[in-house]
Amino acid sequence: MYVQRCIECGREYDPREIAYTCECGGLLEIVYELDMVDTSFVSSGEPLSVWKYSSLLPVEITPVSLKEGGTPLYECEKIGQELGVELYVKHEGMNPTGSFKDRGMTVGVTKAIELGMKVVACASTGNTAASLSIYGAKAGIPAVVLLPHEKVALGKVAQALMHGARVLSVRGNFDDTLALVRELCTSEGFYLLNSINPYRLEGQKTIAYEIADEMGWESPDRIVLPVGNAGNISAIYKGFVELKKLGIIDNVPMMTGIQSEGACPVVDAFERGDEDILPVKEPETVATAIRIGNPVNAKKALNAIRESKGFAERVSDAEILKAQRELAMAEGIGVEPASAASVAGLKKLRELGVIERGERVVCITTGHLLKDPETVLKNAPSPIEVDATIEAVRKVVF
Ligand SMILES: *Cc1c(COP(=O)(O)O)cnc(C)c1O
Ligand SMILES: [Zn+2]
């Protein structure tokens, strides 16, 4: 069994209570009686998926699932060799909607149904909205998504619209939009499915389970991933910690969070040695999925980074776009800009000597290239227009 527990004061809440945060203001997390957990997934040989690990997921009913998780872990020999590390990329862009948000939403929407909620809602830089929309459709529960009216990548808006969510375009940035949806959920009794909801993070922790599983229940030395609202780094850390407590793995990887220079409050706090962030008022970056100035899960993320002896670093938009192109050209992995922040950060931290030669590193690429075609078209060469003759074509090929 499990409870919701405050990470600050330890107060416990019934798993059916819709609280999101503690009365003291602290974030909640789901805590299990680990000695009661069935760990037969360790040797079941079942294919990877979120629900393979259902004994460690807080759900009592048949899941609302579109077969999420089971994403590929690619060995990246070219970039790895160049950087002097053993590099793997866990490509979360291969989920049903093309981002890791599906892992959280399959659990979160299932929980909404279990709790008898009538409407689900979220604020989103795009991917959370796309994901909530498909599970809302599958479950037959209305979904309301609030997007900041600028800077949402095209593919994400298209997904939210096509799958039938009520899509609102809010005149404000993501942080304003999140504050608004929290108020809306309180006043209307909608179920909030942003990453402040601890059930959503439970789904996302399966990234850790899948990595350890695929590596034969060994941990890599380090996980590197982009940090926006800071839920995913917290979730993946929690996943590894649970496996260690269960005696399934020996160590927890160094959790390494990367933010964009224009939106890096977690990195700033890490460098100051503070437990709290100072919000960034006007966050700006090409990596719209992490264009967040006031990450709600910052406290959990800073814990994860410190306790795992990890690190936090910022990268520029130019470094992000360069890493995106390198992943695409050298490894055949197409990711959206935010995802490439992981590899850009790895590169920078190798140069700074924070990441050591020979480390076994897993970068999480959080979203698919097709999410944001506009950024590609802005930065890539145009197609070469030719007449429909063989002479014209031969002139411009190699
Ligand atoms: C949501 C998202 C992130 C940021 O994850 P957080 O949990 O908010 O830190 C990074 N990349 C992509 C593609 C995302 O969709
Ligand atoms: Zn509390």
Topology at a glance:
Layout: E1 2-6, E2 12-13, E3 28-32, E4 73-75, H1 77-83, E5 86-91, H2 101-114, E6 120-123, H3 127-139, E7 143-148, H4 154-162, E8 166-170, H5 174-188, E9 191-192, H6 198-204, H7 206-214, E10 222-226, H8 231-245, E11 254-260, H9 265-272, H10 298-307, E12 311-315, H11 317-331, H12 337-351, E13 360-365, H13 373-379, H14 390-396
Parallel strand pairs: 5-13, 6-7, 6-9, 7-8, 10-11, 10-13, 11-12
Antiparallel strand pairs: 1-2, 1-3, 4-5
Bound molecules: pyridoxal-5'-phosphate and zinc ion.
Residues 99, 101, 127, 195, 226-232, 289-290, 336, 338-339, 366-367 line the site of pyridoxal-5'-phosphate.
Description:
This protein has 398 residues and is of the alpha/beta class. The chain folds into two domains: 73-98 and 200-379, Rossmann fold (3-Layer(aba) Sandwich); 99-198, Rossmann fold (3-Layer(aba) Sandwich). The chain is built from 14 helices and 13 strands. The chain has helices at 77-83, 101-114, 127-139, 154-162, 174-188, 198-204, 206-214, 231-245, 265-272, 298-307, 317-331, 337-351, 373-379, 390-396, and strands spanning 2-6, 12-13, 28-32, 73-75, 86-91, 120-123, 143-148, 166-170, 191-192, 222-226, 254-260, 311-315, 360-365. Strands 4-5-13-10-11-12 form a six-stranded mixed β-sheet, with helices on both faces. Helix 8 (231-245) links the parallel strand 10 and strand 11 (254-260). Helix 6 packs across helix 8 and helix 11 (317-331) crosses helix 12 (337-351). The radius of gyration is 21 Å and the shape is globular. The protein starts with a strand and ends with a helix. The model has no long low-confidence stretch (mean pLDDT 97). The chain binds pyridoxal-5'-phosphate and zinc ion. Zinc ion is lined by residues 6, 8-9, 11, 22, 24, 26.
